[in-house]
Amino acid sequence: MSIRVFVKLHLSRILLESLPTRSTSTHNTRFFSESSARHGAILSESSSASDYSRQISIASLLLRYGFPQSQLHEFFRKHRFLMSSSPSDVEKCIGILLSYGLNQNSLVSIISSCPQTLELGFLTKWKVGFSELECQNLAPSFVQRTLEQSAKLKTEPSDLHYAVQLMKSLSLSGKTIFKVLEEFPLATIKHSGDIRRTMDMLKSVGFNNEDIDRICHLFPGILACNINGRLRLLFGELQDLNFRLDEVKQAFRNHPKLLLSMEHGELTRYLDLLNSLKCRVPIKKMILSNGRLAACINVKLRVDFLCQYGLICREAFKILFVEPRVLIYDLEDVEKKIDFLISKLNLCIKHLVEFPDYLGVNFDKQIIPRFNVVEHLISRGGLGFNVGLKHLVRLSRHKFYNFFVKPYPECEKIFGGLVREAVREAKPRHPVDMWKLLKPQKFTDTEEDVKNMKLLMKSLV
Description:
GO terms for molecular function: nucleic acid binding. The chain has 28 helices and no strands. 66% of the residues lie in helices and 0% in strands. The longest helix has 31 residues, at 34-64. Helix 7 packs across helix 9 (174-183) and helix 18 (292-308) crosses helix 19.
């Protein structure tokens, strides 16, 4: 009981600050009689008391569903319509929002960004609109996005129905339609004729309805691309570079957003880099195993990844040109090497420009064992110079062993323990059991052979 009284007192303090102050003029009250003034005062006190109790109920209702107490005063001050709202209507609105699967954080977010959701008429109108979509399980994010757009852009349920029917006529699936509606405002879809032209252009290139549906689901932003700008330039460049249609389809299925984010001429630069690579034939075959366009996308992914760490595009291109094996490793492996370079070796990302082969060597078989050996020798004070990245990367295994491991037998287990045994063992000239094949065949001696041998010996004597 004491806790409830304390909460009410605290709410009353908040709401009293949000209520407008009323000033009375003694000059105006002279024309009223004492009885009429007393009667008006009683009426105003009763109406203000009812408004006050209504506001207390709404405030406690919002606090019950997780609305921040620190924002309550500002929320009531900005949205005066709540002063005259009914607590039962507000509770019905919250119940409708919760029926769409919104959690507490989403509920507070949509109430803060779109206070009209606490108006029963507004929310009932959209409830009817959602029911006419004939979709049993609407995503909570879709409901939240649609209501927020309706409050900001003044869209109606009819606009939603128009957008849904438009995309259904373009053979898009239900999941893709709601994915597009989460990304785009309804007002944009309502007044845009570029969607049909975009779909027609994709079909003219060779995409079927299934391909288009997958692309729009992965990247709804393709429907907002300028047809005469980015889309036409991209497909023109793909045609000039003689990419096969199946390569283009596969690339758009897997990386539509990445392709559409490329500037005009960017694909040409990536293809020139691939053509100028000087590496072993097996490595180049592995790079181009999935096609030239997939290889260009791999170059784009790694250039963007290296630029995230502070390199410029020219430096990233230089690293890929000098060390093409980076295109073979996954991005997770490249990220692991860079994090090790920064956190363990305490080197900056710029060292990769001087030693790009660091990203091309095997991390677990070369970098880690050599680093552990060097750390052990430093802890013992066995090194009189600074070990740089070139010692971990550019020394051959035999040279590193002779210089850092061979003088210290305890480092053999750290390094691998197989080098010294391999050096000690003499390499055989011939394969094992070769002497059995070279041994002459043995024949048994008969009595006749013995007689002949004796006669031969007597003749010699």
